[in-house]
Specification:
Layout: H1 5-8, E1 28-36, E2 39-47, H2 50-71, H3 79-86, E3 92-93, H4 96-112, H5 121-124, H6 137-144, E4 152-155, E5 160-163, H7 176-190, E6 196-200, E7 203-207, E8 215-220, E9 228-234, E10 237-243, E11 248-251, E12 254-257, E13 271-278, H8 281-294, H9 296-305, E14 310-315, E15 320-322
Antiparallel strand pairs: 1-2, 2-6, 3-5, 4-5, 6-7, 7-10, 8-9, 10-13, 11-12, 13-14, 14-15
Helix pairs in contact: 2-7, 7-8, 8-9
Length: 333
């Protein structure tokens, strides 16, 4: 049987459909949010692929969990809890990390003449902001007798800490989150990440820029949720905001919030928020609490004496005040 030539030609195969590129293998911005250390943790970065981003973010989140396990006052097996249990009876050996934080805390206490003091915890533990509970005057006065950084007996050579007053406690809530974001950025740098932001509540540390434009961090309006009072373009800097709107309750027209004056055990009422910019989050978070306690005039005077540090203050009338480093020449603060 004869066939025509056309029947002998091989049939052409249909060209395979082009596959869409796998977004997981493409470079881009990747982010993740988790709840750690009693606050919202956010990591956003530029990476070569989803796998590279996930690996880097996993490392940051693991570090956040490690710091929480060591420094939480609510975990009985944390290093901080062990210190609070044992340091009243004699010197307690500290990890190198904890010793470094205690040393920085004492430096800030001396610099601020006690406006920053990690021994505020004897009074701080008496407040429950969710339940709207505060201590009565007599109980608070008794707790304040245990406060005083001068009675924290720290031996930097032996890496030990002892409490010199009955009932003393310490709490690193004044700058533990700032330390955590610093550690997160340090991990990303080691992994070769060049553009990122790590945030823990009101504390952030930005690495590089957003690939050609700065990061923008907003300072929220302390009295109008969802509104902002300033937007700052940032690169390679840490920023922390402490506000009287974060954890608070009101009784009898008085706002009781989580920033306490260690000298009184009460919440200062002369400011609504303080934002600090500096090279590291340990400094920014510690100074945001310090300036809040000192007030606008004394707080900004302190900031002006410290090189490379700036501040934005919202006073009790809602007015903005800036340190000179954030103003153009000749502009009043």
């Amino acid at each position: 049987m004869l066939f025509g030539l056309s029947a002998l030609r091989p049939r052409s195969k249909a060209a395979p459909a082009a596959r869409a590129p796998d977004p997981n293998l493409a470079p881009g911005w990747f982010s993740r949010d988790e709840a750690i250390m009693g606050t919202a943790i956010h990591v956003e970065l530029w990476a070569a692929s989803r796998a590279a981003a996930d690996s880097a973010i996993d490392a940051v989140m693991a570090e956040m969990h490690r710091i929480d396990r060591a420094m939480s006052p609510h975990k009985p097996d944390s290093e901080l809890s062990r210190i609070n249990r044992e340091a009243g009876a004699g010197p307690v050996e500290l990890s190198d990390e904890m010793a470094g934080l205690v040393a920085r805390a004492l430096e800030l206490s001396h610099l601020s003449q006690g406006a920053f003091d990690i021994s505020y915890a004897s009074a701080g533990q008496l407040y429950d902001y969710r339940a709207g509970v505060r201590p009565d005057d007599a109980t608070l006065a008794e707790a304040c007798r245990a406060i005083g950084y001068q009675h924290l007996h720290f031996d930097p050579m032996a890496c030990t800490l002892a409490f010199g007053r009955p009932g003393m406690r310490i709490d690193l809530g004044g700058f533990a989150k700032g330390h955590a974001v610093d550690r997160g950025v340090a991990i990303l740098r080691r992994l070769g990440v060049a553009h990122a932001i790590v945030s823990a509540g009101g504390d952030s540390h930005v690495l590089g820029d957003r690939r050609g434009r700065p990061w923008t961090v907003a300072i929220r309006d302390p009295r109008r949720e969802g509104e902002v009072v300033a937007v700052l373009p940032l690169e390679n800097v840490a920023i922390s905001t402490s506000g009287d709107y974060e954890r608070y309750f009101e009784q009898g027209g008085v706002r009781h919030h989580h920033v306490l004056d260690p000298r009184t055990g009460r919440s200062p009422a002369h400011l609504r928020s303080v934002t600090i910019l500096a090279d590291d989050g340990l400094t920014t978070e510690g100074l945001s609490k310090t300036v809040f306690v000192l007030g606008r005039e004394r707080g900004l005077e302190l900031i002006e004496r410290l090189p490379g540090i700036d501040a934005v203050v919202v006073d009790d009338h809602g007015e903005l005040h800036f340190s000179s480093g954030l103003l153009g020449p000749g502009q009043p603060a």
